[in-house]
Amino acid sequence: MSSSDFAPKVMKAIRWHKAFDIRVESVPVPKIQDPDDAIVKVTLAALCGSDLHIYRGHGGVEKVHISGHEFIGEVTELGANYGSHSQGRPELYSTLKVGDKVVSPFTVNCGECNVCRLGYTCRCPDGLLFGSPVLEGGQAQYIRVPKAGGTLFNLSDPKSWHSGLSHEMKKTALAGIADSSLLMLSDILPTGVFAALQAMNHPKVLPALTGRPWPSSFFPGDPSASMALEDRALTFAVIGLGPVGLCTCVSLLDMLSAQSVPFQIVAIDPVESRREKVMAVYNKIDEAGRGTGKFVAQSIDDAKNTVKTWTGGIGCTAVLEIVGNTSAISLAYDLVRPFGAIVSVGVHGEPQMPFTGRQLYNKNVSFDFGRCPVRVMFPMAFDLLVKRQDVFGGVGGPDSLVDRIVGPEEAPEMYAQFEQNKIGKVVFDMWK
């Protein structure tokens, strides 16, 4: 089950050597190492904000490796465990074929263990992060995908994954969506949906959504308490307006548009161009997709004043922290109300959290930290991708998520510009 006989032996790859040192080099094409492996010919790969942690030399990484964890491509080779004989395993082990178009989550997951069955796929015991010292990344012309039957999504066979859309609607949508848009399903869009979903479903947000004060909000049949509409008003802050922050805002607006409660969102970033981008995106979305609440994009100091004015000094119902550093999480703590929730999907490093236990106790703050389980978030993210092609479908516009599609030779310059906030989402055409 292979087209490897016709594949080149050497490929082009974007490799990290040391802090701020990205090189485009020729390296051997990967080979099957395990019967569960697949080899994918990468058509497009993306540069993600979390790639900057290694780029900047954070995290103690020393090993030279291929960068990147967002990629889309075509299966060129499958290990021996694929085929009709593989029954009782994740479906792709019996249905995935050479030539199928696939998109991959940014982590490997087996799909068979207790952790995966519970839906926490990003913390699979066999999980590995693409574009790290333990697993070569997707910014290359070919990539080896371990546990591919439990990891990949087969875009050539939409019956192999569920969705809120019918099979025919999925087929029609896939035929009209560009690969640069589908690539967002590797990480940034599912992560944005994940952040919004955690905030909207947090127990401390339930009183506003159910109209019953805490703890009656846990019991749908309890008619003993109700809340005035003004007390149900939701105030959210989104900290960090890079590509994931943009996806978070779009997802949060989409979820709130389906609710009948007043809301207000302040999107926060110190970089003016990012604030301008999120407002352009917001203005592109019709009222059905953004609701009738307030939405503003502001600097840090302006946002603090806005939250104070909006809430009478009480603070935000929930804060979604998308950056992953101590300054951002400190700001989240400052903005959140007592009995509020902080959802953090930014990749934090080694520095300790900038709070004491007493500070957390004094505010009754709840935290949700960590990595998005892309494999289980994919269906929700796909449906939003289809719905919001007005935002996710374009390239290079002031209201487009993707800023540029470039060849791999431009990678060193694109990394440098991205690190300096001079450009937004960059996609690499690995064959350009």
From TrEMBL:
Entry-linked InterPro entries: ADH-like_C, ADH-like_N, GroES-like_sf, NAD(P)-bd_dom_sf
Keyword Metal-binding: yes
Domain of life: Eukaryota
Cofactor(s) it depends on: Zn(2+)
Protein keywords: Metal-binding, Zinc
Residue stretches making up the Alcohol dehydrogenase-like C-terminal domain: 262-367
Residues covered by the Alcohol dehydrogenase-like N-terminal domain: 35-148
Gene Ontology terms, MF aspect: metal ion binding
PANTHER family: DEHYDROGENASE, ZINC-CONTAINING, PUTATIVE (AFU_ORTHOLOGUE AFUA_2G02810)-RELATED, ZINC-TYPE ALCOHOL DEHYDROGENASE-LIKE
Designated name of the protein: Chaperonin 10-like protein
